[in-house]
Design a protein that fits this description.
This protein is of the alpha+beta class. 55% of the residues lie in helices and 12% in strands. It has 18 helices and 7 strands. The chain has helices spanning 32-36, 55-59, 63-73, 79-91, 108-114, 119-132, 188-191, 202-219, 223-236, 241-253, 257-270, 275-287, 291-305, 309-321, 325-338, 343-355, 359-372, 376-394; strands at 5-11, 99-100, 116-117, 136-151, 154-166, 183-184, 197-200. The longest helix is centred in the last third of the chain and has 19 residues, at 376-394.
């Protein structure tokens, strides 16, 4: 499954999972004054040349984009037709021909002209074009299971949003780009699932954009920039638990442990099911010698997550990262047993077998990854890797 927006960061060294069915009990009443005390402006000074993208910057269309809407989309008769034309022009090789890149967290104009965007930026660009075309469009958050992707020494937990285009026509919902309808979704996996959804406001999407930018800056070691983005995310949407959790990660990495604990606890107060904040809090509590609460969190979270194939995927990725290949195989297989339609699990299995010089097993796993994958760009990558394995076996 492609990641749509970065949701939270999970410290992986050490990798300790935790859970709680109810919120960790906070010892604080969070007044506005106390919330303001969770910021460290004097520690993370904004660079003189740095400016955070404004809402206008993020959603702005330039003359070429407006011309596309005027010439190709506005003249279409119905909202359904307009939506189809819009999606055709986004993906057609003769037009924008956008491709996916997880790192490309960019504004709408840059997504359009660079022809590369992650799914959040792609959704933002589609939203801006749809609004210009006069469509009644809203963002939806899709409640997908916890899903992580690896970035160096971090596991990044992802979330998902899509677009909902309203129509007054009497037509039944029509599939758009794979299995949407007037629901425009750029992830074939999510389209095929019956996940719950809810409409979210534009400011929530802005907060996600800032959270993504902050996460990438943190991974890059640009802590002052990461702070500016995480703060902007929490100010744009003060209830965005994951942004507060990421701010706490930043504090933990820079040895502000007491501030990190307070910020984790606030994130959990906002969302009791913020398992990443809970897991990271447990790591911090153990560091501070509070093993009793850490153990309680870890045990409950482990039970909660054990039925999630992506939980086993992240454990497998961690084992692979540490070159514990037999343990990685074990967790990939556990994940596959829970859900046999997750192509990343088979790919993980293949690359692990390859590291163990088990080329025949790696080929079988790659073939399964190809079979269950539904994303064209990923299919091309998998075919290339399978061809490589075939060459290795011949040699």
């Amino acid at each position: 499954m492609k990641n749509i927006y970065l949701y939270a960061l999970l410290i992986i060294s050490p990798l300790i999972f935790s859970c709680q069915n109810s919120p960790v009990q906070s010892h604080h009443t969070y007044s506005p004054k106390h919330i303001d005390s969770l910021y460290l402006d004097q520690t993370f000074i904004k660079p003189d040349t740095f400016e955070i993208e404004s809402e206008q910057d993020i959603f702005r269309l330039d003359a070429e984009m407006i011309s596309l809407v005027d010439e190709k989309i506005k003249k279409s008769f119905s909202p359904i037709k307009k939506a189809k034309v819009l999606l055709h022009h986004i993906f057609s090789q003769d037009n924008i021909a956008l491709s996916y890149a997880s790192h490309a967290n960019v504004v709408a104009v840059d997504a359009f002209h660079s022809q590369t965007a992650n799914c959040l930026s792609l959704t933002i660009m589609a939203y801006a074009l749809a609004k210009e075309a006069g469509l009644d469009v809203e963002f939806q958050q899709v409640e997908v299971p916890e899903y992580w992707v690896r970035n160096g020494k971090y596991n990044l937990l992802t979330g998902h949003i899509n677009l909902l285009i309203a129509t007054k026509s009497n037509f039944d919902n029509i599939k758009i780009y794979g299995s949407g309808s007037l629901e425009v979704d750029f992830d074939p996996y999510v389209q095929k699932q019956s996940f719950s959804k809810r409409v979210i406001k534009k400011n929530a999407v802005l907060a996600m954009f800032y959270n993504n930018k902050g996460g990438q800056a943190l991974v890059n070691g640009d802590y002052a920039i990461a702070y500016q983005y995480f703060k902007a995310a929490t100010q744009e949407n003060s209830n965005f638990s994951s942004a507060w959790g990421n701010l706490a990660v930043l504090y933990k990495l820079t040895n502000h442990d007491d501030m990190a604990e307070s910020t984790y606890r606030y994130a959990i107060t906002l969302e009791s099911n913020n398992y990443t904040a809970l897991a990271n809090l447990a790591i911090l509590l153990r560091k501070k010698g509070n093993d009793v609460e850490a153990n309680s969190i870890e045990n409950k979270l482990r039970i909660k997550r054990n039925k999630n194939p992506y939980y086993h995927a992240v454990l497998a990725d961690e084992a692979y990262y540490n070159r514990n290949y037999p343990q990685a195989i074990l967790h990939y297989k556990k994940g596959i047993k829970l859900n046999r339609k997750v192509h990343e699990l088979y790919f993980g299995l293949a690359k692990t077998y390859y590291q163990m010089n088990k080329i025949s097993e790696a080929k079988k796993a790659m073939k399964m990854a190809l079979r269950v994958n539904k994303v064209k760009s990923t299919e091309r990558q998998y075919i290339a890797k399978l061809n490589f394995l075939n060459t290795e076996q011949l040699n």
